[in-house]
Write a structure and sequence with these properties.
By secondary structure, the protein is an alpha+beta fold. The protein folds into two domains: 75 residues, no CATH class; 160 residues, YojJ-like (1 (3-Layer(aba) Sandwich). Helices cover 53% and strands 14% of the residues. It is built from ten helices and seven strands. Strands 2-4-3-1-5-6-7 form a seven-stranded mixed β-sheet, with helices on both faces. Helix 5 packs across helix 7 and helix 5 packs antiparallel against helix 9. The protein binds adenosine-5'-triphosphate (ATP). Keywords: ATP-binding, Cell membrane, Membrane, Nucleotide-binding, Nucleotidyltransferase, Transferase, Transmembrane, Transmembrane helix.
Length: 253
């Protein structure tokens, strides 16, 4: 019984704020109706409910393939079947570069969409854009998003401490997000729903810096809160990463 309750809680948690949540609520009503029909021995009503349940399962699988994939991926990444790998890279200097880039772009109201790859491979998404394979740096990222340049439209994919590709096309979320947010934010939420990536967004319209993760968006970040979130991914600056940052800065001079 407890196991069933935990499973139901996990399913509701995973589907919260998605269109699947409404369907699950509908399913709950159908199951309740079927149970009541059994209790009150309403054979015909019970037969209708059972028919809906059996034929509905197939329809649900077809309708909710993306959600099911996301749920299975989530399960695969969870700690239930062993320790989840950490995505920390010990490359704290990357955090500084990303924060610097976001700050500059935000001040100048230049829109940006930066996707940080974690355990889910983004090879297919990277192929939709232009491959760069360049070391991450704030000036390079700022240059990519400079309006009216060939690569500014679309998303940048980061893999480890490298810029893998630019001008990439992401899937848009089909779930509801605030109307103030357009396709850049929808794309960030979309990729974070179907993978474990973290998406960094700078709004062209408002300069607001946001992070999308696990299908949810956190807005109005300042440098400190952005640094804190990014440090969870790249790790705090270690002695090694500080040295590498100094070397990196020297190379840029
Ligand atoms: N599917 C997508 N994949 C990657 N980038 C996208 C996608 N859709 C839109 N974009 C980017 O978002 C830009 C359009 O942003 P739009 O103004 O519609 O969204 P927004 O969320 O309101 O962002 P902003 O606040 O920056 O205006 C496009 O020029 C493109 O660079």
């Amino acid at each position: 019984m407890l196991l069933v309750a935990v499973m139901i809680y996990q399913i509701l948690n995973l589907t919260r704020k998605t269109r699947a949540f409404q369907v699950i609520k509908g399913l709950g009503i159908v199951f309740l109706g079927s149970a009541l029909a059994q209790v009150f021995e309403l054979t015909a009503v019970g037969w209708i409910f059972n028919y809906i349940i059996t034929s509905g399962a197939l329809v649900l699988v077809v309708l909710f393939t993306p959600e099911l994939r996301r749920a299975l991926e989530h399960l695969g990444r969870s700690k239930i079947f062993g320790k989840a790998e950490t995505a920390q890279l010990g490359a704290g200097w990357v955090v500084d570069e990303l924060v610097e880039c976001a700050e500059h772009l935000s001040k100048r109201r230049v829109g940006a969409l930066i996707i940080i790859e974690q355990k889910t491979g983004l090879g297919e998404i990277a192929e939709t854009g232009t491959r760069l394979d360049a070391k991450i740096s704030a000036p390079l990222l700022e240059n990519i998003f400079e309006p009216n340049t060939p690569l500014h439209d679309g998303a940048v994919i980061l893999r480890g401490d490298r810029i893998e590709a630019a001008a990439c096309l992401l899937p848009l979320t089909e779930n509801q997000i605030s109307k103030e947010m357009g396709t850049r934010h929808r794309a960030a939420v979309g990729i974070s729903e179907s993978s474990d990536t973290v998406a960094l967004i700078v709004s062209e319209e408002t300069g607001v810096i946001s992070i999308a993760r696990e299908g949810r968006i956190k807005r109005y970040l300042n440098s400190a809160s952005l640094k804190e979130i990014l440090s969870e991914i790249y790790g705090p600056p270690t002695e090694e990463s500080l040295i590498s940052k100094v070397i990196h800065r020297r190379r840029k001079l």
